[in-house]
């Protein structure tokens, strides 16, 4: 480290100079890759000893889980017309989905600690397949709401277990592994909403959900075959629901690192939920995009996460949360403020590129949050916090829908930018090490 507190890069510079002397001067992109640690050896270290197939299976399951959930915003206009919903009610459907997902985090974390992370991943995927089948055959708004809630709860079980299993399997590269997994989710977010929108336009929205059911079943089998049933110890802090266990959990939750990162996570999750929930509708109603154009741009937004998330995950591994997170949140703030003032197709496209930074904050905050808990309660602790911040964040689409219905669609994005500013102000309060 230098006196200014930044990493000492002199060794990197000398290595580059030596290579130039030999006629092998690297390109600018290669130099950046060296700084971030993205070289062949790093990739081999991440994937060695069978970890690659575990990462693939977990990432594939997450790709499907979140991709189908993010198909909902694209299908919202079709659901509105098919079920006779206004914007407020349509936004509430998204709130139901994400609230159920939030409420399932704590049970998912407890089950992860007690039954084993791999077992919970399989259980989550199987439940999701069944509930998605119910969504596909639902013929009324109440049944769609009910089945959506059950589907959200089922996918929630996947949420915590994927973090704890990756943290255990990749102890020295958890940010990178989580970043890759979340990037796989962005593949699902880019492809599955686009496919669902195409199916809805040519057939009916129900077919998009129905065709995903056998895919969920196949992924459940893959997870069962490849992922270890348990990566944590044979016992956990919540093997018995006692007063002593509760005191232990509460004592950990009161640590400064956990309190501050949770507040930041609440703010940033509200940004993610509010933005993604109604962005296709915003493009159609406020920017004059067609439904096909809005769907395509929404898919492109998530496709950009394939690049953004591994990069921000590696930034966290290299520089820590206090140096990497302010940069990401700064880009988010400027992009959200600029969005209402962008007019025309290409300015909005460029704005969406910068808005994809919203997808990168989680690969910084979530590894930090996971590392903050001791091994015997990672699932329970992370599940409790995820239930807490997701329950609050689940209200964001409904509140955004109310603003939109009352003529304040543009102003809603300024509010989200304000959340990012508050989060930036809190970052200096975070300890350098999550368990320091």
From TrEMBL:
<feature type="transmembrane region" description="Helical">
    <location>
        <begin position="207"/>
        <end position="227"/>
    </location>
</feature>
<protein>
    <submittedName>
        <fullName>Sugar phosphate permease</fullName>
    </submittedName>
</protein>
<feature type="transmembrane region" description="Helical">
    <location>
        <begin position="144"/>
        <end position="165"/>
    </location>
</feature>
<dbReference type="InterPro" id="IPR036259">
    <property type="entry name" value="MFS_trans_sf"/>
</dbReference>
<feature type="transmembrane region" description="Helical">
    <location>
        <begin position="257"/>
        <end position="280"/>
    </location>
</feature>
<feature type="transmembrane region" description="Helical">
    <location>
        <begin position="87"/>
        <end position="106"/>
    </location>
</feature>
<feature type="transmembrane region" description="Helical">
    <location>
        <begin position="118"/>
        <end position="138"/>
    </location>
</feature>
<feature type="transmembrane region" description="Helical">
    <location>
        <begin position="348"/>
        <end position="369"/>
    </location>
</feature>
<dbReference type="GO" id="GO:0005886">
    <property type="term" value="C:plasma membrane"/>
</dbReference>
<feature type="transmembrane region" description="Helical">
    <location>
        <begin position="381"/>
        <end position="400"/>
    </location>
</feature>
<feature type="transmembrane region" description="Helical">
    <location>
        <begin position="412"/>
        <end position="430"/>
    </location>
</feature>
<dbReference type="Pfam" id="PF07690">
    <property type="entry name" value="MFS_1"/>
</dbReference>
<feature type="transmembrane region" description="Helical">
    <location>
        <begin position="292"/>
        <end position="312"/>
    </location>
</feature>
<dbReference type="InterPro" id="IPR020846">
    <property type="entry name" value="MFS_dom"/>
</dbReference>
<dbReference type="InterPro" id="IPR011701">
    <property type="entry name" value="MFS"/>
</dbReference>
<feature type="transmembrane region" description="Helical">
    <location>
        <begin position="54"/>
        <end position="75"/>
    </location>
</feature>
<keyword id="KW-0472">Membrane</keyword>
<dbReference type="GO" id="GO:0022857">
    <property type="term" value="F:transmembrane transporter activity"/>
</dbReference>
<dbReference type="InterPro" id="IPR050189">
    <property type="entry name" value="MFS_Efflux_Transporters"/>
</dbReference>
<keyword id="KW-1133">Transmembrane helix</keyword>
<feature type="domain" description="Major facilitator superfamily (MFS) profile">
    <location>
        <begin position="54"/>
        <end position="435"/>
    </location>
</feature>
<feature type="transmembrane region" description="Helical">
    <location>
        <begin position="324"/>
        <end position="342"/>
    </location>
</feature>
<feature type="transmembrane region" description="Helical">
    <location>
        <begin position="177"/>
        <end position="201"/>
    </location>
</feature>
<keyword id="KW-1003">Cell membrane</keyword>
<keyword id="KW-0812">Transmembrane</keyword>
């Amino acid at each position: 480290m230098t006196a200014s507190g930044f990493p000492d890069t002199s060794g990197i510079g000398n290595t580059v100079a030596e290579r130039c002397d030999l006629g092998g001067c690297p390109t600018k992109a290669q130099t950046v890759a060296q700084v971030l640690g993205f070289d062949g050896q790093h990739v081999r270290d991440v994937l060695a000893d069978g970890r690659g197939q575990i990462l693939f299976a977990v990432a594939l399951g997450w790709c499907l889980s979140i991709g189908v959930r993010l198909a909902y915003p694209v299908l919202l206009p079709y659901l509105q017309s098919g079920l006779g919903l206004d914007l407020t009610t349509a936004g509430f459907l998204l709130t139901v989905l994400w609230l159920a997902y939030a409420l399932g985090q704590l049970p998912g974390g407890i089950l992860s600690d007690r039954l084993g992370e791999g077992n919970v991943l399989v259980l989550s995927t199987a439940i999701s397949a069944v509930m998605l089948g119910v969504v596909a055959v639902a013929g009324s708004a109440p049944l769609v709401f009910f089945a959506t809630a059950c589907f959200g709860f089922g996918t929630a079980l996947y949420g915590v277990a994927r973090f704890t299993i990756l943290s255990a399997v990749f102890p020295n590269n958890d940010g990178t592994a989580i970043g890759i997994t979340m990037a796989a989710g962005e593949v699902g977010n880019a492809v599955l909403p686009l496919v669902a929108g195409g199916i809805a336009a040519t057939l009916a929205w129900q077919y998009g959900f129905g065709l995903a059911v056998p895919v969920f079943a196949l992924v459940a089998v893959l997870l069962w075959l490849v992922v270890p049933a348990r990566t944590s110890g044979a016992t956990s802090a919540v093997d018995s629901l006692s007063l002593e266990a509760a005191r232990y959990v509460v004592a950990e939750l009161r640590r400064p690192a956990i309190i501050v990162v949770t507040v930041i996570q609440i703010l940033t999750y509200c940004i993610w939920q509010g933005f993604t929930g109604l962005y296709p509708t915003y493009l159609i109603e406020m920017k004059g995009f067609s439904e096909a154009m809005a769907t395509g741009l929404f898919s492109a937004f998530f496709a950009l996460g394939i690049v953004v998330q591994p990069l921000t995950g590696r930034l966290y591994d290299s520089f820590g949360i206090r140096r990497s997170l302010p940069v990401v949140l700064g880009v988010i703030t400027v992009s959200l403020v600029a969005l209402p003032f962008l007019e025309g197709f290409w300015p909005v496209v460029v704005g969406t590129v910068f808005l994809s930074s919203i997808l990168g904050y989680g690969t910084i905050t979530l590894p930090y949050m996971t590392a903050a808990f001791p091994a015997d309660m990672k699932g329970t602790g992370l599940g409790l916090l995820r239930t807490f911040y997701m329950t609050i964040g689940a209200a964001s689409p409904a509140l955004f829908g109310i603003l939109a219905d009352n003529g304040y669609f543009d102003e809603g994005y300024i509010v989200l930018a304000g959340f990012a500013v508050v989060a930036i102000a809190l970052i200096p309060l975070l300890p350098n090490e999550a368990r320091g």
